[in-house]
Sequence to fold (105 residues):
Amino acid sequence: MLGRPKTPEQYVDLVDQALFEIDDLRLAAEYDMDSMGAATEFLDELEQDVRRLRESMADGSYRFGKDNLPFVKVVEPQDERVLPFKQLLLKINETHIHGLDVEDD
Fold:
């Protein structure tokens, strides 16, 4: 997916995918602490922020906004070798700020 998601369902799927990737990265980091140890330093905060976002989507309290989502401050300084799904998280944030990619008919 190159552009922003077009439907709320696609947006929720991106967040679910991010949660899956966070769990996967945590498992990899626990398995190989020597090379992946840096990831564990920010994973807890990242996971909390993304879970809060997902919960707000589930309970109906989520609103698109003009400011970055809280996890961006954790994501931006990370190298993609440490955070291989960084672009996915940035796409979620871009969608939060600019909304769904709805074409005008």
Q: What stands out?
A: The helical segments are 8-31, 33-59, 72-75, 86-98. Residues 8-98 form one domain.
